[in-house]
Design a protein that fits this description.
Layout lengths: L14 H19 L6 E2 L14 E2 L3 E2 L2 H17 L3 H24 L13 H20 L8
Antiparallel strand pairs: 1-2, 2-3
């Protein structure tokens, strides 16, 4: 008997896996774009971490070297977890929960506070809210339903 893999047929990805791969790809892209002058305004003011970085991705979202690295790592984690249905679902739902915590953190911590080390501005905060809700929704809506008999 010939297995699907040895026959050159790759198993199909589920919708949740494909969705997690797309989300991970966007995070990788955002991480890379954060290091490109022009796409990131005030690039020369970018610091490793802290609220003093005035660099802004697309002129809107405050970034630092650490912030960009976090996006890259979050994207890589998504690619690794998307290999399985449960991993992809965990990435979307767990990642969404992390972004909701970041949203709350951004609301509580002042933008000029030393605790704003990533850094985050108001645009980041609201993006985190929508990312959190969106990722959690995608995790639930794209996961295959189990059929019980």
């Amino acid at each position: 008997m010939v297995s699907r893999a040895s026959a050159g047929v790759t198993p199909a990805r589920s919708l949740v896996q494909t969705t997690a791969l797309v989300v991970a790809g966007v995070f990788l892209l955002v991480g890379v774009l954060g290091f490109i002058p022009g796409i990131t305004t005030d690039y020369s003011s970018m610091s490793f971490a802290g609220h003093h970085s005035e660099a802004k991705l697309l002129g809107v979202f405050q970034v630092s070297i650490l912030h960009n690295i976090v996006h890259l790592l979050f994207g890589l984690a998504g690619f690794a977890l998307a290999r399985t249905v449960s991993g992809a679902r965990s990435y979307l739902i767990g990642g969404g929960a992390i972004y909701l915590v970041l949203w709350l953190y951004g609301l509580v911590v002042g933008q000029d506070s030393a605790a704003n080390f990533v850094p985050l501005n108001a645009a980041d905060d609201w993006l985190h809210l929508f990312l959190g809700i969106g990722m959690i929704a995608l995790g639930f809506l794209t996961t295959p339903k189990r059929v019980t008999r």
